[in-house]
Amino acid sequence: MKTTIRISAILLLTGILFACATGEYMQMNPSEHAEVLGIVQTTFNVTGAFRYRSTINKHSYISLMAQAQQQYPGLNIDIRDISWAIGGGDAANNTYEYSAIGKVIKVEN
């Protein structure tokens, strides 16, 4: 119960704080019956000249996967239901910070 409340609070705060631009990526297929191990979140920077949705999606996945591999070493895992949102930006350097959250699933061999 505490985990559900904690996850809901994180999602709500992320939504409120970073509501400028959001995206979803790698949604879990309803026919996919994977075991969800947990949720990871991360922040990363993207240079403004390369702020295409595909670039942000890739950065989200890579950053979340790195975080998940630290939390679940030795397991065959992947990330699903990725949501990202833009945070602050540095107009002088044309760099923007993003926040991402996703579910860690166990991949069957």
Give an overview of the whole structure:
This protein has 109 residues and is of the alpha+beta class. The chain has one domain (2-106). It is built from two helices and four strands. It has helices at residues 2-17, 53-71; strands at 22-25, 35-47, 77-90, 95-106. A four-stranded antiparallel β-sheet has the order 1-3-4-2, sandwiched between helices. The longest helix is centred in the middle third of the chain and has 19 residues, at 53-71. It is globular, with a radius of gyration of 14 Å.
Task: Give a brief rundown of this model.
By secondary structure, the chain is α+β, with helices and mostly antiparallel strands. It has helices at 2-17, 53-71; strands at 22-25, 35-47, 77-90, 95-106.
The percent of residues in helical segments reads 25-40%
Strand content: 35-45%
Order of helices and strands: HEEHEE
Unreliable stretches covering 5 or more consecutive residues: 16-20
The end-to-end span amounts to 31 Å
**What topology, given as strand order, has the largest sheet?**
1-3-4-2
Number of domains: 1
Largest sheet descriptor? 4 strands, antiparallel
Beta strands, count: 4
Topology:
Layout: H1 2-17, E1 22-25, E2 35-47, H2 53-71, E3 77-90, E4 95-106
Antiparallel strand pairs: 1-3, 2-4, 3-4
